[in-house]
Specification:
The complex is a heterodimer of chains A (733) and B (149).
Chain A: H1 2-8, H2 16-46, H3 51-73, H4 77-98, H5 109-120, H6 124-146, H7 158-203, E1 207-211, E2 219-222, H8 225-230, H9 234-239, H10 243-246, H11 250-266, E3 270-277, E4 283-294, E5 300-309, H12 311-346, H13 350-365, E6 369-375, E7 381-387, H14 389-397, E8 401-403, H15 409-416, E9 420-422, E10 442-450, E11 453-462, H16 470-541, H17 544-576, E12 582-585, H18 586-597, H19 600-605, E13 607-610, E14 616-619, H20 621-637, E15 646-654, E16 660-666, H21 696-706, E17 711-715, E18 721-726
Parallel strand pairs in A: 13-15
Antiparallel strand pairs in A: 1-2, 1-5, 3-4, 4-5, 6-7, 6-11, 7-8, 9-10, 10-11, 12-14, 15-16, 16-18, 17-18
Helix pairs in contact in A: 2-3, 2-4, 2-7, 3-4, 4-5, 4-6, 5-6, 5-7, 12-13, 12-16, 16-17, 17-21, 18-20, 20-21
Chain B: E1 6-11, H1 15-26, E2 32-37, H2 40-47, E3 64-67, H3 76-85, E4 94-98, H4 103-111, E5 116-119, H5 124-141
Parallel strand pairs in B: 1-2, 1-3, 3-4, 4-5
Helix pairs in contact in B: 1-5, 2-3
The chains are: A alpha+beta (733), B alpha/beta (149).
Chain lengths: 733, 149
């Protein structure tokens, strides 16, 4: 029957050991069945008295064996094995008992059990136990026999005996064949496998190794590819089991050994990428992966590892990282360039633009310090206008400045109009060592040039040596140019705004001027034309007295017009015709003016006090004399009823811009506060009865303003008046 | 009041111009009296009966005021304002008589409730004509607010 064929063939097992075990059990079962059947057939001829016994045996053993075989098929080898062993022991023991004891040849069956047990049992202990059991049962049997507990020992005929023995011999031989054959097969397969694996391992382009499991990780085995990998032969590694550690790159060594330590404890797979130094002193990158191999008892046996050469991959990675870093840098540069450009084109206020731009560059490029200097009017000094960070703020607060020239990078840069780079500041001679910036290792100074003119420079400093690449320099110079333009634009814009303001001021002045002039010239005209008519009437009515009076009025009006016109001309000329300016001692001007103004009568009456230590000023000599003339003359005119007229002329300290504040004071009638501004207005006269055209103070103010100064009055009615004004000092040598 | 001479207050700092006005007004058919003040301060003192003008009888309220704009110390416009802001004085017609024809002066004057704005003409005939017309209009035709002082 087909199924029986299948039933009787050994099923497939995984693992040779199991296979052998299965085969053995199977075979024995089959043998037992076969032998039992053959006994049943043969024995009636040889020993008919045993037939019944054998029948019983058959009845017991056949089903049991079938069960055993079924168990094997179900892969329940252990139960099968145990059952089989037990069956055999039972049969042997019972037979021995029935045969009268230890002399029964069936007792040989115990040996059988031991042999089978040896094959089936995983450990030697099983065999020991079995042996002991057999010996024990044997002795029990002997004891029983001795004490007559057992039936009469049967005498077996010699043929009977030998048949039984032969049976056992055959079984033994077959068993031996199976196991030995299997063993041989196993060995061959194993050896072949080993050969296969070895050739595989030793030919694939990776290096394998075996290390001990302790933390020393001694090399037990290394495949021959190691020679190709490192130039060292396998002997190096095997002679010195710690050799592999010695060729690890210094920078990676600690890391690798630490990982090794870690995995030794945790028994996790080992994984690391590190550098090794080859025999030729080259550096290669390897990927090291190792797993722990356990023996059949679950104890760690050794580390089985693989070294793969990943040098090319690592190099590619590095290259890629470099590329990415360069690209990132470029992107940042472009970004910063765009930001600076945007700021430069939209912000016109330098106080806002310069700090912003400096911070942009500082942050985006992550430099140590960025500072921006602009030259002052003399072009001799570069003044720090914007700087990054805390030290920047400090330096600006200290009004930090550098001289244009060769004493500093900035100075050199401005005087030569060229960029200057110090890649290692220790070595550059032209360098100003700034105590507030101690960490600078490299520095760059870029000139700010607008329309061919150097207006300042930017300093960029880094804590790293050689921090500026060619690309950096180009990008930064572009930014510097944009900033220069922005500065120029901002200045032009401010200039323009100032000019417009000035223009508007002038326009307003002109308007006022025209208005005033037309009005005040018209008045005498009205008089003249008006009284001309009356002159005729007077002549007609022969009223000579009136005629004279009216004629006088006309004459006065005419001459008034004349004076007015010449004064106006004078006033307008003050703005345009500029005489050469010179340094004059103020005292001299005062004396000249006094000479012109004070007549003999005044001299007797009015006391003039000129203070000592008057400065030397710089200005238009004749005009300044005019100023003093007017002021002194006014002072005298407005003495009122003062019995002791006194005029003081002197200096009252300096103003915020270093100009001297000079004064002319009198003890006359004084001026009410509401008129302190009006008196400088054109033709505004507080007291028409006092002689004068009303143009004097306007002229005075105009002259002072042309000199860049200011004039104002301090006065109260009845308490005299002090006119104060500022003039420029003569420039020091 | 019919028959009574019209009192004209002239506030003018230019003595020649004042003379021109006074002479013309003297020769006018309509009877009038001109009181001349050289500056704004004294004019206001008169109107408000201050300093030497405290006596109402000898310093009666004028029927019309001729006011020049360019005055020393207190400006013409300020005088105008002072008059037009005072409840008692605001009814008195104020005629601005000035050399300036500048728009801003005209605007300011009217804005501050000037009753009329006259520009002094250059020329004898014209000046006389203006004064005549001024007299006829303000002293003759115009009905004065008969407000007692």
């Amino acid at each position: 029957m087909k199924s029986e064929d299948n039933f009787f063939s050994v099923p497939e097992f995984y693992g040779d050991e199991a296979k052998v075990t299965a085969r053995v059990i199977y075979f024995i079962s089959v043998a037992l069945i076969a032998s039992t059947i053959s006994f049943v057939l043969i024995l009636p001829m040889l020993a008919p008295e045993l037939t019944s016994r054998v029948m019983v045996l058959m009845l017991v053993s056949i089903p049991t064996n079938l069960v055993i075989m079924w168990l094997v098929r179900s892969k329940k080898l252990r139960i099968a094995g145990v059952l089989l062993t037990f069956l055999i022991w039972l049969v042997v023991t019972v037979e021995s008992i029935l045969s009268g004891g230890v002399s029964a040849p069936i007792l040989m069956g115990y040996m059988f059990i031991i042999i089978i047990g040896g094959v089936l049992a995983k450990r030697n202990r099983g065999t020991v136990y079995l042996t002991l059991v057999c010996i024990g049962s044997g002795f029990l049997l002997a004891f029983a026999e001795t004490n007559g507990m057992l039936p009469e020992a049967e005498s077996f005929s010699p043929y009977m005996r030998i048949t039984v023995y032969a049976f056992f011999f055959l079984i033994a031989m077959l068993l031996q064949n199976i196991t030995a054959g299997n063993l041989k097969n196993l060995l061959v397969t194993a050896r072949n496998s080993e050969k296969k694996y070895k050739s595989l391992l030793e030919n694939i382009p990776i290096t394998t190794y075996i290390n001990t499991t302790d933390s020393n990780a001694y090399t037990e085995y290394v495949s021959p590819q190691v020679e190709k990998l490192l130039g060292y032969s396998r002997d190096n590694f095997l002679k010195d089991p710690e050799f592999w550690k010695k060729i690890i790159h210094l920078e990676d060594r600690d890391r690798v050994l630490e990982e090794n330590e870690h995995t030794t404890q945790t028994e996790e797979p080992f994984e690391a990428e590190y550098r090794l130094i080859t025999k030729d002193k080259n550096v290669i990158w390897v990927r090291d992966e190792a797993t722990l191999v356990y023996d059949e008892y679950g104890k760690p046996l050794h580390w089985l590892g693989v070294w793969t050469d990943i040098t090319s991959r690592k190099m590619a990675e590095e290259e890629q990282a470099d590329l990415i870093s360069i690209m990132t840098k470029r992107t940042i540069q472009l970004q910063t360039g765009a930001d600076v450009s945007r700021a430069a084109s939209s912000i016109l206020d330098l106080d806002q633009l310069l700090p912003l731009v400096v911070e942009l560059i500082h942050n985006h490029f992550d430099y140590y310090y960025v500072g921006l200097f602009l030259t002052d009017d003399t072009r001799k000094w570069a003044i720090l206008r914007a700087a990054s960070g805390e030290m920047g703020r400090e330096m600006i607060a200290l009004n930090h400045r550098l001289e244009v020239g060769d004493s500093s990078m900035i100075g050199w840069c401005i005087s030569h109009g060229q960029a200057r780079i110090a890649l290692d500041v220790g070595e550059d001679a032209v360098r100003f060592r700034n105590p507030l910036l101690p960490l600078t290792r490299s520095e760059m100074a870029l000139p700010l040039i607008s329309r061919g003119e150097v207006i300042g420079a930017m300093t960029i400093q880094s804590e790293l040596a050689a921090a500026f690449s060619r690309v950096d320099i180009t990008a930064l110079q572009t930014m510097a140019d944009q900033i220069s333009n922005a500065i120029k634009n901002a200045r032009l814009f401010t200039e323009r705004a100032n000019l417009i303001k000035e223009l508007e001021g002038r326009n307003a002045e002109l308007e006022q001027f025209t208005y005033t002039v037309s009005h005040d010239l018209k008045a005498p005209l009205v008089t003249i034309r008006g009284f001309l008519g009356y002159l005729r009437e007077d002549a007609g009515s022969e009223n000579m007295e009136r005629f004279d009076k009216d004629l006088k009025r006309i004459e006065n009006a005419a001459s008034k017009m004349q004076t007015l016109l010449s004064d106006l001309l004078e006033l307008s000329r003050v703005g345009y015709v500029i005489n050469t300016t010179e340094d004059i001692p103020f005292e001299q001007i005062v004396h000249e003016a006094l000479e012109l103004v004070i007549g003999p009568s005044d001299e007797a009456r009015v006391k003039v006090d000129i203070h000592k230590g008057l400065p030397i000023i710089h200005g238009d000599h004749p005009r300044l004399v005019e100023v003093m003339q007017n002021l002194i003359s006014n002072a005298i005119k407005f003495m009122g009823g003062q019995p002791m007229p006194h005029i003081g002329i002197g200096q009252r300290e300096y103003d915020n811009e270093g100009r001297p504040v000079l004064f002319v004071s009198d003890n006359g009638i004084g001026i009410e506060p509401q008129y302190h501004e009006r008196i400088f207005g054109l033709f505004n006269r507080l007291d028409p009865s006092v002689n004068g055209t009303g143009i004097g103070l306007t002229l005075v103010r105009r002259i002072i303003e042309v000199h860049g100064g200011r004039i104002w009055v301090e006065s109260e009615p009845g308490k005299g008046a002090t006119f104060l004004f500022t003039l420029p000092l003569a420039k020091p040598e | 009041m019919v028959g009574e001479p019209i009192l004209v207050m002239l506030v003018e700092d230019n003595v020649d111009h004042a003379e021109l006005v006074i002479r013309t007004m003297e020769e006018h058919r309509i009877a009038n009296k001109v009181r001349h003040f050289l500056d704004g301060q004294s004019a206001l003192d008169y109107l408000f009966h201050r300093s030497e003008y405290t006596d109402h009888t000898s310093n009666p309220r004028p029927h019309v005021i001729l006011l020049d704009l360019r005055l020393p110390r207190v400006d013409g416009i300020d005088v105008l304002k002072a008059i037009k802001e005072d409840n008692d004085l605001k009814a008195i017609p104020v005629v601005v008589l000035t050399t300036s024809e500048a728009e801003k002066d005209v605007a300011r004057a009217y804005y501050n409730h000037a009753n009329s704005y006259l520009v002094k003409p250059v020329g004898f005939e014209e000046f006389k004509k203006l004064m005549d017309d001024l007299g006829f209009y303000w002293l003759g035709w115009n009905t004065n607010p008969g407000i007692k002082d």
